[in-house]
Specification:
This protein is of the alpha/beta class. It has one domain: 3-Layer(aba) Sandwich (Rossmann fold), CATH 3.40.50.720. Helices cover 40% and strands 17% of the residues.
């Protein structure tokens, strides 16, 4: 098992520095894929990827086709896969330089076994196919407090997923650990709605500790891609405060 390294402390670029990094990255003519583009963070991520126009090709890999119409999506293609038979869809993961993974479900929706299947097994298998397909930078959306040795099931699964993604051996692996995600969900989750309202109020006082908007996480992911890697280390762990810093550069 691969152990997660301590979070790295790297400088946050200024808006002008970020603009230069973006322009340089566009010249590399790279392709990316997004796993979980139908989820709350995934939808914001797709919008940010298209807004920044960093990639020559964007592939959405998922279990169903999304309704995407208009010239805005001209360089977006969709690969429909069966995650239970993922080896049969290995070609969907080939030819991408960067991979974003926002796969995830909940125990309430999928049950304990289903949650582990999606958030651990699907994530691991996707990462392995991505590495075999040529992906060199993999970005994983995890969770604050993720720890493979945690006594809490949710955090233990998230931590194990981090370890297995690291074990795939990417040239660069970025692990994002957001706190409670603030978003406008289409599905009804009353308890989460109440928590978001409370945390949204607390965020005015402590904006980087308890929560983070999904749009901020998405922008942090894309901004992180154009930045230099973590030196000699292949793995970088970005905690919630770091995500706020990166995601608020415009």
């Amino acid at each position: 098992m691969v152990c997660c390294k301590p979070p790295l402390r790297m400088s946050v670029p200024t808006p002008e520095e970020l603009k230069n990094l973006q322009e340089s990255f566009r010249g590399k003519n790279q392709a990316c894929f997004i796993l979980g583009a139908s989820g709350e963070t995934g939808k914001e991520l797709l919008a940010e990827v298209l807004r920044q126009q960093l990639f020559s090709k964007v592939t959405l890999i998922g279990r169903r086709k999304l309704d995407l119409e208009g010239p805005h999506y001209s360089n977006v293609r969709q690969e429909i896969v069966d995650f239970e038979k993922l080896d049969e869809f290995a070609a969907a993961f080939q030819g991408h330089d960067v991979g974003f993974c926002c796969l995830g479900t909940t125990k309430a929706k999928a049950g304990t076994a289903g949650f582990q299947r999606v958030d651990l097994d699907y994530v691991q298998h996707s990462a392995e196919l991505a590495k075999a397909g040529g992906c060199h930078h993999f970005i994983l959306q995890s969770a604050k407090g993720a720890d493979a040795s945690s006594s809490f099931f949710y955090l233990r699964v998230k931590g194990e997923a981090e370890s297995r993604v690291q074990a795939a051996g990417f040239d660069r692996c970025s692990i994002f650990r957001p706190a409670v995600l603030l978003c406008d969900r289409q599905e009804s989750r009353p308890a989460e709605w109440v928590a978001q309202k409370v945390l949204g109020a607390i965020a005015y006082i402590h904006p980087t500790f308890f929560s983070i908007p999904t749009v901020t996480v998405a922008r942090a992911m894309v901004n992180n891609v154009v930045m230099p890697g973590p030196g000699n280390q292949k793995v970088e762990i970005l905690e919630n405060a770091r995500l706020h810093a990166l995601g608020n550069i415009k």
